[in-house]
Design brief:
The protein is mainly α. It has a domain of 45 residues. Helix 2 packs across helix 3. The protein is extended. The N and C termini lie far apart (134 Å).
Length: 297
């Protein structure tokens, strides 16, 4: 009877054989698939026109059989392709727009002018469809706002609700009050009850004077800038300096040399620094009298 080690070795050999068989089978399947793909590519390259014609006939048959379903499937295929290649599509559109932006703007204006009512209808339809989503988002925002107010200890924000009849009555009363013409007696009586405090009146007068001064100053600055611009345009520019000739350059060099000699002879020279004597009781070296040189010697 075989022992446990022999059984383990036989089991491991069987596992290895099975693994090798699986690997060989996988390689054979992979090679067969690649061979079939290559055959399909070669066949399509050799019969390209026939395949294209077959595809056109197939699409025409599907379109005639189910026009709505065909358009829906075509839109879905186009959408899937655009979602996968959105970066490339946007780059092409930007390049096309940058190449000739005015032409595209004119085309858009013409399209909007021709389909104005259709576009307005689409916008109204989109607004109606999105109204529920907007209302839900607003309600959620208000709930979050109320939660935040409660968390920090603030009272709930509530606006007083007014009935429609009451709002209309208030609006009608306001129209009657502001539209009617006042008599002279009513105006005199109203003006008697109006009293302006002296400090408020003085502040108003100061503000008016300051506003007028600011306005006049701004006008004067604008006029000054305009005159400066006109003067700058009318004033001729600086004349170009004449280029010195060889004789002038030689004369300038000679005069520079003479000036340097005079400078070297008459310039005031400071005496050389004396070494420190390390004696704290001695007078400071800078207190010694300085002998003059140059023109006073």
């Amino acid at each position: 009877m075989p022992d446990d080690d022999e059984i383990e070795r036989e089991t491991e050999d069987i596992r290895l054989k099975i693994a090798h068989a699986h690997a060989a089978l996988y390689d054979r399947v992979r090679l067969e698939r690649e061979a079939r793909r290559q055959y399909a590519r070669d066949y399509y390259a050799a019969h390209r026109e026939e395949q294209l014609e077959y595809q056109r006939q197939r699409r025409d048959a599907q379109r005639e059989e189910d026009p709505d379903g065909y358009r829906k499937r075509a839109k879905e295929r186009t959408k899937r392709w655009r979602d996968k290649h959105v970066g490339e599509v946007n780059a092409k559109l930007r390049a096309k727009y940058q190449a000739n932006p005015e032409k595209l703007r004119a085309r858009r204006r013409e399209y909007y002018a021709e389909h104005a009512e259709e576009l307005r209808g689409k916008r109204r339809e989109h607004y109606a469809k999105a109204k529920e989503a907007r209302d839900a988002a607003r309600r959620a925002w208000l709930e979050d706002e109320e939660t935040r107010r409660r968390d920090v200890g603030l009272p709930p924000a509530r606006l007083p609700q007014t009935e429609r009849d009451q709002r209309e009555a208030h609006a009608a009363a306001a129209d009657r009050f502001f539209v009617r013409k006042w008599t002279e007696a009513e105006l005199r009586e109203a003006l008697k009850s109006i009293t302006t405090p002296p400090d408020v009146w003085a502040a108003w007068v100061r503000d008016c004077a300051r506003a007028r001064a600011t306005y006049h100053l701004a006008e004067q600055k604008a006029e000054l800038e305009r005159l400066q611009k006109e003067l700058g345009r009318a004033r001729p520019g600086p004349k170009p300096k004449p280029r010195p000739t060889a004789e002038q350059r030689a004369e300038d060099a000679r005069l520079d040399a003479i000036g340097k000699q005079i400078n070297d002879r008459l310039r005031h020279r400071e005496p050389p620094r004396r070494p420190h004597h390390l004696d704290p009781a001695a007078p400071h070296p800078m207190l010694q009298p300085n002998h003059t040189m140059g023109m006073n010697r």
